[in-house]
From TrEMBL:
A Pfam entry, by short name: DDE_3
Tc1-like transposase DDE domain residues: 75-204
Name assigned to this protein: Tc1-like transposase DDE domain-containing protein
InterPro entries with a match to the protein in the record: RNaseH_sf (IPR036397), Tc1-like_DDE_dom (IPR038717), Transposase_5 (IPR052338)
Highest rank taxon of the organism: Eukaryota
Length: 244
């Protein structure tokens, strides 16, 4: 099970204005300017990828991690539940933080969070949202839980919580969003939010819920099935960031 967190933004600034334009609008502007291009090219230019900075120690840990997982099958990766905390690059008049989780079987319920997340509040989220999510996605089957190295995640009390609940946690290399398929899932959610253009907190929450509910198990499975390729990409890049 894989984890995630949040959409949090301020009022739109002028330099962010074209982020709310549709791909069709942008493509039309380029065409009128004499530039012929595809919809896919417009999207790539509109939303640049941001690669994390990795020091030598982090690159080595990523490489070691990938080498250890090199022979994992898609079936093995499908045993993971991934929660995530999303930070969107889209600006809205309102802000909200969201916890969510996915697996190869689909997505779990959303949790809208108020305030900062510490170890105690994170464990509350795990208790009231992660466990029901795992029950929905896996039933009585065993699973492996994945989250990043945020302080609330790596706290000793959080580690004890997992031990007490008999849940295996996947070791995770720092600064590795390219190894986390839920990042790609939230790219889909963010694109739909741009089309929805929410203005109020209620509209933003409703748009997030609608977008998240539209994610299909097939989309989730395709992302999980990409894990062997991600592993190979990290090994080929000797631990440096990859295209994912």
């Amino acid at each position: 099970l894989w984890e995630g967190k949040s959409v949090a933004e301020n009022a739109a600034q002028r330099e962010e204005k074209d982020r709310f334009q549709t791909l069709g609008d942008l493509r039309k502007q380029w065409t009128e300017s004499g530039v012929e291009t595809s919809r896919a090219t417009v999207y790539r230019c509109r939303i640049p990828q941001v690669k994390p900075l990795l020091n030598q120690k982090q690159r080595q840990k990523r490489l070691t991690w990938a080498t250890e997982k090199q022979h994992w099958t898609v079936a093995q990766w499908s045993k993971r539940e991934m929660p995530k905390c999303l930070k969107s690059s889209v600006k809205y008049p309102q802000s909200v933080m969201v916890w969510d989780a996915m697996s190869a079987a689909g997505v779990g319920p959303l949790c809208f969070i108020k305030g900062r997340v510490n170890a105690a509040s994170y464990q509350e989220i795990l208790e009231h949202f992660m466990l029901p999510s795992a029950a929905k996605l896996y039933g009585d089957e065993d699973f492996i839980f994945q989250h990043d190295l945020a302080p609330a995640h790596s706290a000793k009390t959080t580690g004890k919580w997992f031990i007490d609940h008999g849940i295996i946690v996947l070791n995770w290399p720092a600064n590795s969003p390219d190894l986390n398929p839920i990042e790609n899932l939230w790219d889909i959610v963010k694109r739909k939010l741009r089309d929805a253009r929410p203005n109020t907190l209620g509209e933003l929450k409703a748009a997030i819920e609608a977008s998240w509910a539209s994610i299909t198990p097939q989309q989730c499975h395709r992302l999980i099935a990409s894990m062997p390729r991600r592993i190979e990409a990290v090994i080929s890049a000797k631990g440096f960031p990859t295209k994912y």
